[in-house]
Amino acid sequence: MPLLGLLPRRAWAALLSQLLRPPCASCTGAVRCQSQVAEAVLTSQLKAHQEKPNFIIKIPKGTRDLSPQHMVVREKILDLVISCFKRHGAKGMDTPAFELKETLTEKYGEDSGLMYDLKDQGGELLSLRYDLTVPFARYLAMNKVKKMKRYHVGKVWRRESPSIVQGRYREFCQCDFDIAGQFDPMIPDAECLKIICEILSGLQLGDFLIKVNDRRIVDGMFAACGVPESKFRAICSSIDKLDKMAWKDVRHEMVAKKGLAPEVADRIGDYVQCHGGVSLVEQMFQDPRLSQNKQALEGLEDLKLLFEYLTLFGIAEKISFDLSLARGLDYYTGVIYEAVLLQTPTQAGEEPLNVGSVAAGGRYDGLVGMFDPKGHKVPCVGLSIGVERIFYIVEQRMKTKGEKVRTTETQVFVATPQKNFLQERLKLITELWDAGIKAEMLYKNNPKLLTQLHYCESTGIPLVVIIGEQELKEGIIKIRSVASREEVAIKRENLVAEIQKRLSES
Amino acid sequence: MPLLGLLPRRAWAALLSQLLRPPCASCTGAVRCQSQVAEAVLTSQLKAHQEKPNFIIKIPKGTRDLSPQHMVVREKILDLVISCFKRHGAKGMDTPAFELKETLTEKYGEDSGLMYDLKDQGGELLSLRYDLTVPFARYLAMNKVKKMKRYHVGKVWRRESPSIVQGRYREFCQCDFDIAGQFDPMIPDAECLKIICEILSGLQLGDFLIKVNDRRIVDGMFAACGVPESKFRAICSSIDKLDKMAWKDVRHEMVAKKGLAPEVADRIGDYVQCHGGVSLVEQMFQDPRLSQNKQALEGLEDLKLLFEYLTLFGIAEKISFDLSLARGLDYYTGVIYEAVLLQTPTQAGEEPLNVGSVAAGGRYDGLVGMFDPKGHKVPCVGLSIGVERIFYIVEQRMKTKGEKVRTTETQVFVATPQKNFLQERLKLITELWDAGIKAEMLYKNNPKLLTQLHYCESTGIPLVVIIGEQELKEGIIKIRSVASREEVAIKRENLVAEIQKRLSES
């Protein structure tokens, strides 16, 4: 039976069930007759062909389609985010979805394995972008741009274990704002925190807090605690997990997996419990171990200045200096920050939201230099809004409240109560479209009036214009309000003006 | 010298130049001394390390970054396109950048080889999307959607030979509008043509023409001319090249490469010269060969009805029934169309534009059924706006005219003529931001006033608010118009209101 090897899986199952049915009368029962097997094979092959059995329609693991409902929510949120970026003077830009693989390597630390590579089809080795920061740095270095304030909204791709429940996907949208250039200390850094505050307040997601630290303080703390310098980045990655894991598990990872001495881990443990306002910065200046470390002192000086500016921006009370904040990515060199939503008591009927980081960023003064042949540096600081998490939160809230969104913006529907009025409807809708009015009609020669009115109610179209024999004869049009069901007759030639008047009033 | 094998290329060149310099005094001249070679190797290695010689910074072949200038032009054009789609009642949606490879195979005919595949990293076999139509059909089938009017703006990827001169890239943006569902004939089809007209008129690209044909007429013509059915799609692909190639070259391809009999090719040649309005449709009904073909007759009937609706939409004079239009993609089943800009006489100083197709589409009634396990069909018709070509045309025109675009939207700049006024500037800009005003300042503690004013002029910021010692003492702020250089003093507490008044007036 050489054919069997070629059978697709579902056909195999069909064949098996054929073979397992009672033997035919002419057989001994112990062995199936040749004709029965041949028939089974044939039937399966035929079925296989007719039903395309091997073809299961689906989309790639960890990805999803965005329905019109999703898109409406996204558009609103992105509009708010982008208009904040523009308010702060940022320019838009975009980079290709993929980069040369070597552009992306050695930028992301432990996470590099999660990059999507493209197949080698006889050209360059390419990978899908993993964030928008590295392509931005590559852009600056390649075009020798020394100064730029830009935002970038785009998709990035990571081969993470997808968690649909938490709204984590392998393809997701990032919204980044960055300031590149040599400036006086902490002014751009403070503006980044101001932007995060404006966006999170604007989105009305509830109370939030921005944790702030500095990579130089993190490294200084590691040095002060006795972490060998070769382990700095690895230990930093462990600390970064403190928002998802308990200290004892992070400690275990550092000691058992990363070979840190237990007493060193415990010293770190003392520090990472510290968080507070500007007073904690002052306190750390007095810390016997930290204050011996040059790097840490520089970081503390900058944080002090940062808090001064944050006070002028009126957002100091939203900021917490937090020694447990480490940020996972390798490229940070100075101030780092992460905004978290504060859990509010769950209201009746509301499901508790999985609250976490909704924005983050920091200073990365060395990244552009990594791309420059001579290592010329361009200092940068920036932020990324966790829009996917925000989309998820807003969608969950709407679901809980039973809120519905209109997925179209249609203002007027063109209807008729009579048969053979397609031509008049087409003429009428042309007038509306040409006047810039959003209009729809049914693609039927003779639709029922009830069907037409029902369409307006179900899709939220506010106005209907109705044309029939009577109206045509008298040179009038009826305008109907879907909500109130009121109808008025107007002169045909006043149609556009009357519609525009009603739309501007509503 | 085992080290040499490890040297990168630029280091090799440096080594070579060292070895080629004049021999040292202690050498015979014929053979270089050991110490000299060793020195050369060492120097090269050091250089190699310092200058990262192997790293050439670039982006993938056929792709490009979109600068802020590009983005501004794009945003304006896309806004116009999307608002037209919304005017016709379309909903937005999005699909992942990649699909299962098998979703995309056997949909694009001869072009399938141009797909970007992802590397097999131990999961599914994936490819980057090649257009937005196949993912839309997959979406409809997967979600059992029988009716939908949607638009989709997104990137697609094709491994074509990039032609930067013609604005053709391997990553490009598509803007699609499609109507899925079983409706009365030609109503949605006519609306698609209306949309193309609205968009091309709105963009003011100059005069244009939409060529229309029907796949059933193309196939009927092939049958009538004696093309074997097995060659229909291949010959269709050749005909599709008529807008770029002369008839004699297309004929050669059909005969020499695709094995068509010369007399059959010549019969096709007679037809593909025909183009005209609705009168040509009437004429083809009388054609002795075409009128024998059932498929062709169906196509002609539909075109006749289409022209009736196009007349009601007021766009019939923009449409040309063109028998040379074939469209390359396999999935079309009915009406097909392609919009071309008509070459206008080149004005003085203007470079002649490479005019070509700027929008296209057609009816594809079988594509959704290819994804349905039971083959259930959902008829579809749609269009794609060639926005990349449009971006290119608009950018070229602006370049010719020397037009410049602002890449930021900043309305107000916060300046000071004095030292040590950072705090006051920060307080002032906070007020503006919090009132929703787009504002910038320089990130310097003590910028010069001239530098600040120059920044406004070079970036097009219209208003400056100025604060100095005098103003602070008197509780006033100066507002300066950058264009007129006029300055007025206003009360500090009226700042936001005064700025808003001025912005609403301009």
TrEMBL record, chains A, B:
Where does the record place the Aminoacyl-transfer RNA synthetases class-II family profile domain? 62-417
For this UniProt entry, what's an example GO CC term? cytosol
Q: Does the keyword rRNA-binding apply?
A: no
Which positions in this protein are listed as binding L-histidine?
131-133, 158, 174, 178, 327, 331-332
Example GO molecular function term?
identical protein binding
User: Is the keyword DNA-binding in the record?
Assistant: no
Q: Write the record's keywords in alphabetical order, separated by commas.
A: Aminoacyl-tRNA synthetase, ATP-binding, Ligase, Nucleotide-binding, Protein biosynthesis
The catalytic activity of this protein is classed by the Enzyme Commission as 6.1.1.21
**Reaction(s) catalysed (UniProt annotation):** tRNA(His) + L-histidine + ATP = L-histidyl-tRNA(His) + AMP + diphosphate + H(+)
Q: What class of enzyme is it?
A: ligase
Any one of the GO BP annotations? histidyl-tRNA aminoacylation
Q: Which Pfam families match?
A: HGTP_anticodon (PF03129), tRNA-synt_His (PF13393)
Q: Which family does the record claim for this protein?
A: Belongs to the class-II aminoacyl-tRNA synthetase family.
Q: What is this protein called?
A: histidine--tRNA ligase
What organism is the protein native to? Cercocebus atys
Organism taxonomic ancestry: Eukaryota, Metazoa, Chordata, Craniata, Vertebrata
